TrEMBL record, chain A:
GO terms for cellular component: membrane protein complex; plasma membrane. Keywords: ATP-binding, Nucleotide-binding, Transport. This is ATP-binding cassette domain-containing protein. It comes from Spirosoma arboris. Belongs to the ABC transporter superfamily. Macrolide exporter (TC 3.A.1.122) family. Residues 4-233 form the ABC transporter domain. It comes from the Bacteria. Pfam families: ABC_tran. The keyword Nucleotidyltransferase does not apply.
Automatic annotation (TrEMBL), chain B:
It is found in: Cell membrane. This is FtsX-like permease family protein. Its main location: membrane. It comes from Spirosoma arboris. Pfam families: FtsX, MacB_PCD. Residues 253-372, 711-825 form the ABC3 transporter permease C-terminal domain. Residues 14-219 form the MacB-like periplasmic core domain.
Length: 233, 833
């Protein structure tokens, strides 16, 4: 059973009476444990594709199946429940809640589904990312690298089957980026999570098993197809 | 640059502007109204009096003075007035009214509004027994024009319904409605008896161009000496102007409170605005702008918005002032002509501009400290905490502005300082309550509660929380409203307290010596108790220890006030004290060796600088009576009793002209009506005061007063709500981001909505409770030190205020957060860091 299946996904925005199609008939399937990168220049539709895959928005046509659940037939609340159950997120700009401490930020996904022992789980994750002593600090009291590590801990808090990372090192310097990326892949491996990475950084993308390149909303390269062609040859 | 920079934030600046609009509107409306009122009093001064001069007395002046009064002026009208029960035979209704016997062409100025207008002519001809009756009395007694009204022994045909009498505010007709009858019939009513309390008055019209003030100067010494009062147009103008100047001063202070609330809104809006602008400031700094330049850019923006807001506010206020004469209608003795008031409008615009600059200064100071490093590192934190020494200068300026403005409004420095101090204390207490609340939530955070509750509670003390600003602004609004209701309840409670239990609730007075036995029989015949009975003799004080007023005035040592010799004393005689009195020094009234030893009220004794053994000489309607101060006593004036400053011993005043007062308690309105009808038919000159009716009248007056205050409080509340709305809207941008992120992480619509409802519900509830707590303390102080009554706050109005404030806060909070529920969470991925 695939963990994510995307079929003929198209997204069109209407602006000033004109339609703008930012994604054209995208297709791919991911198996559990896969690591996968979406690369492409700015404005190519990477983030739109990630948003649709995660059920953050609805497609104009086509379907997304997450853990065999068809997302486009669900309403927003149902999709929120799916996200809470199966999905974790990491953002370029960290997206921590400024009014909550580091520990509380990690607790949020668990709290939202009413899980008991959230604090204990969150503390263990903070320890895992090396911030066990910083749990009571607010985001503004943490450096960029530390905020992204809190974000990592939060992403794994609900034991997701699928992790979406949107330019996770975009706001970090080289040294910090390397640490965060290593941590990301380590945690991913330990948890057996499927990783979907959106990035400009080809070096980072190369660490994943499969890469698709998008340009103008169309997939122009899928390394898996190339490999299968090579196998057939 | 300032203008260009504001392009994308003007909507947010509009919020800050709207707080100024409301505050300035209130201020301009009240000040314009005050200016117009003063102008109208000036224009219509003669109508206030209805004549060029009036002269009145209750004790007949000397024949020489009487002769002078009869011949003064080009024309004159004569009025005899007293209180009496009047009845409507058709309906059986009875009520205490002011009976005025008129002769002549009153009023000389102004319009006597009578329906039908022809009734005035019929009345002035005085050929028949006709009466003009106040509208309120006709309504209360269920009578109409064409019915008859019985005054003493005579019946009068009601020829007209009086809706307005020159110089008399409509509210006065509620307290003492008047029945006007031709003076020539008064003698036959049987109501003018020896000892009756009657007032006499002349209305004069002089030839045009007469210097009335000059004429009054020539006779004032004589009139003063004989206890005759006089009133000129100028005198009345000043007196009316003074009382209404006080009213407008009070109201403008209320408007000022609304404006100050707006200032709180301005400061908080600018503070959040500055936070949002920090990145822009950092970029400007990187490009070479100095801290001062950056500061001036944003100061100019707020000043410009303040100016626009103040101008709109002044225009709105000028429109609102058109309705104010209607709001105050019943309290005004004149018709207020409304016109645009230049000084009020310019003053309002100036105040708005000043306020917007002054109250933005504090948050704007932080802009000077924004570092250009922010452009390089988003996580760079500037010190925006406001530990700037210039901050103290701004505090001083704000305080100076409040005192200065309050002084300009009141022209009384002590009052201005007192007002500022009171306001500072109220703000201080509310701030302390807000901070205390934040501390309490943090200290006793309920970790075991559900996530929604914990998230909502935590938002009360988390960074960028709105707790303090909302508790202060909404709390102040709730405080004003709750105080209003509690004070009203206090005043009503005071009257109710007097009329409760076994206290008397009906007072019969003007009972003549020969009538007392009959009245007693009438009361006991209806199985009603006689709770108190006292004879009353009226007199004046001639001298103290042989010294008259004139000789005492020359003495530089402690002396009694001037009024001690001009006032009328109503005294009784008995040899013991009653339950509302307590002996302080000496003895109860007694006679010894042919001397009469009187008992004096302790406060009065002190104010008169008397001592035991002093001699007091009284003039009892021409007959001198010498007494000695034999004792002092404390009197509970709050109790419904006939209480007296001076009590004579028995055996001295029995033969003096006197009347009796009798008190009873009637169980219901029906018994009261039966007793009053019995009195009117058998003892027409005897009057009855029904405390139940007084209670109702007090209630009506308070209802009208509270309407006026509520109208003013409305501005404060509207501003408070605006502050609330702007705080919510400004924090919305932060909340929106948080909520969308929560949605991304899987929160349901219900969870987001619950967090919003609980958070704003808590804020509203706690703000309302803070305001109410403050109002309970305030009204307790009023009850304890001003009204001197036991304090029992009424819970229901407080509950209503709490619920309304809380619900409004939640509604505004949820309304402003509705975007969160409809925006797709994908936006968060595209959001700026």
């Amino acid at each position: 059973m695939s963990i994510l299946r995307v079929e003929n996904l198209t997204k069109t925005y209407s602006s000033g009476g004109r339609d703008l199609t930012v994604l054209h008939s995208v297709n791919f399937t991911l198996e559990p444990g896969d690591t996968f990168s979406i690369v492409g220049p700015s404005g190519s539709g990477k983030t739109t594709l990630l948003g649709l895959c995660a059920g953050l928005d609805r497609a104009s046509s086509g379907s997304v199946y997450l853990n065999d659940i068809r997302l486009d037939t669900l309403n927003e609340d149902q999709r929120a429940a799916i996200r809470n159950q199966y999905v974790g997120f990491i953002f370029q700009n960290f997206q921590l809640l400024p009014t909550l401490t580091a520990l509380e930020n990690v607790m949020v996904p668990l709290e939202l589904r009413g899980e008991k022992g959230a604090a204990k789980t969150a503390q263990a994750l903070l320890d895992r990312v090396g911030l066990g002593q910083r749990g009571h600090h607010y985001p503004t009291q943490l450096s960029g690298g530390e905020q992204q590590r809190v974000s990592l801990a939060r992403a794994f808090a609900n034991r997701p089957k699928l992790l979406f990372a949107d330019e996770p090192t975009g706001n970090l310097d080289a040294d910090t980026s390397a640490t965060v990326v290593d941590l990301l892949f380590e945690l991913n491996r330990e948890a057996g999570t499927t990783l979907v990475l959106v990035t400009h950084d080809m070096e980072l993308a190369a660490r994943t098993q499969r890469i698709i390149r998008i340009k103008g909303g169309t997939v122009i390269l899928d390394t898996k197809e190339r490999e299968s062609e090579r196998v057939q040859e | 640059m300032a203008w260009r920079d504001s392009r994308r934030s003007r909507q947010r600046l509009l919020l800050f502007m709207s707080a100024i609009v409301l505050g300035i509107a209130a201020l301009v409306a009240i000040n314009s109204f005050g200016d117009n009122l003063a102008q109208s009093i000036d224009d219509q001064a003669r109508e206030l009096l209805g004549a060029d001069l009036t002269v009145s007395w209750s004790r007949a002046p000397s024949p020489k003075t009487q002769q002078l009064l009869k011949t003064t002026g080009r024309d004159r009208a004569y009025e005899v007035s007293f209180a009496s029960l009047v009845s409507i035979p058709k309906t059986g209704g009875v009520r205490l009214a002011q009976v005025k016997g008129l002769q002549g062409n009153f009023p000389y100025y102004g319009t006597w509004e009578v329906q039908p207008t022809s009734a005035i002519q019929t009345f002035r001809q005085a050929a028949d027994r006709v009466a003009l009756v106040d509208d309120g009395l006709l309504v209360q007694l269920g009578a109409q024009v064409g019915d008859s009204v019985k005054v003493g022994n005579l019946s009068f045909l009601i020829a007209g319904r009086v809706t307005k009498t020159p110089g008399q505010a409509a509210i006065a007709a509620t307290v003492a409605p008047t029945v006007f009858v031709p003076n020539q019939f008064l003698a036959n009513t049987g109501l003018l008896q020896r000892g009756s309390r009657v007032a006499y008055k002349y209305y004069y019209q002089f030839a045009p161009g007469t210097d009335i003030e000059k004429f009054v100067k020539t006779v004032s010494a004589r009139l003063d000496k004989e206890g005759v009062n006089y009133d000129t147009v100028d005198g009345r103008k000043k007196q009316t102007g003074r009382s209404f100047a006080d009213l407008t001063k009070y109201l403008s202070l209320v408007a000022f409170v609304a404006l100050l609330l707006g200032c709180v809104g301005v400061a908080s809006a600018v503070q959040l605005y500055v936070k949002e602008k920090v990145t822009s400031v950092a970029i400007l700094r990187t490009l070479g702008a100095s801290g001062r330049q950056a500061f001036l850019i944003y100061l100019l923006q707020t000043a410009l918005m303040g100016l626009i807001g103040a101008t709109i506010g002044a225009l709105v206020g000028s429109v609102v002032q058109l309705v104010l004469p209607r709001v105050f209608g019943n309290f005004l003795p004149i018709t207020v002509e409304t016109a645009l008031s230049g000084p009020a409008i310019l003053g309002g615009i100036g105040t708005g501009l000043l306020i917007s600059i002054l109250f933005s200064l504090l948050p704007l100071l932080a802009i000077r400290n924004v570092s250009p490093l922010r452009t390089l590192r988003t996580s760079y934190e500037d010190d925006l905490s406001g530990r700037d020494p210039l901050r103290w200068l701004v505090y001083l300026l704000v305080l100076g502005f409040i005192v200065g403005f309050a002084y300009l409004q009141t022209k009384n420095l002590m009052l201005a300082i007192g007002f500022t101090a009171g306001l500072t204390v109220a703000f201080g207490i509310l701030t302390a309550l807000g901070l205390g609340l934040i501390w309490l939530v943090r200290r006793f955070f309920p970790t075991s509660w559900s996530y929604v509750w914990r998230q909502s509670l935590a938002n009360l003390y988390r960074p960028n929380n709105q707790t303090l600003i909302l508790v202060t602004s909404i709390g102040l609004g709730a405080f004003l409203i709750a105080t209003l209701y509690l004070t009203q309840g206090l005043l009503l409670g005071r009257v109710e307290l007097s009329g409760s239990g076994k206290q008397p609730n009906m007072v019969l007075f003007d009972i003549q010596n020969e009538q007392i036995a009959g009245v007693r029989a009438l009361v006991t015949g209806q199985k009603l108790p006689i709770l108190q009975e006292a004879p009353i003799v009226t007199m004046r004080l001639s001298d103290i220890n042989g010294k008259t007023n004139e000789s005492i005035r020359k003495d530089t040592s402690a002396r009694p006030p001037k009024w001690a010799f001009t006032r009328e004393y109503r005294v009784t005689y008995r040899d013991s004290l009653i339950s509302s009195e307590k002996l302080i020094a000496g003895k109860a009234p007694y006679q010894e060796n042919g001397n009469a030893y009187v008992s004096i009220d302790k406060d009065f004794f002190d104010r008169m600088h008397l001592k035991l053994g002093d001699t007091l000489n009284f003039n009892v309607q021409g007959a001198p009576i010498q007494t000695i101060v034999g004792g002092t006593r404390e009197v509970e004036w709050n109790r419904v009793q006939t209480n007296f400053l001076v009590v004579f011993p028995s055996g001295v005043l029995e033969q003096a002209p006197q009347f009796h007062v009798l008190m009873t308690r009637v169980p219901d309105n029906k018994t009261s009506a039966v007793l009053q009808r019995g009195l009117v038919s058998r003892f027409p000159n005897v009057s009855a005061i029904d405390l139940g009716l007084i209670l109702k009248t007090v209630d009506e007056i308070l209802a009208q007063i509270s309407f006026v205050i509520q109208f003013m409080a409305l501005f404060s509340i509207l501003t408070g709500l605006l502050v609330l709305a702007s705080s919510v809207v400004i924090s919305k941008y932060q909340r929106l981001r948080e909520s969308v992120l929560l949605r991304t992480l899987g929160a349901s619509r219900e969870q987001i909505l619950s967090i919003t409802v609980v958070e704003y519900g808590l804020l509203g509830l706690l703000s309302a409770l803070s305001g109410i707590l403050l109002s309970i303390v305030g009204t307790w102080a009023l009850a304890r030190f001003v009204f001197e009554v036991p304090y029992r706050p009424d819970g229901i109005p407080l509950l209503i205020v709490t619920i309304v404030v809380t619900v409004l806060t939640v509604l505004i909070g949820v309304f402003n957060s509705r975007d969160v529920l409809t925006r797709p969470p994908l936006d968060v991925l595209r959001a700026e860091a």
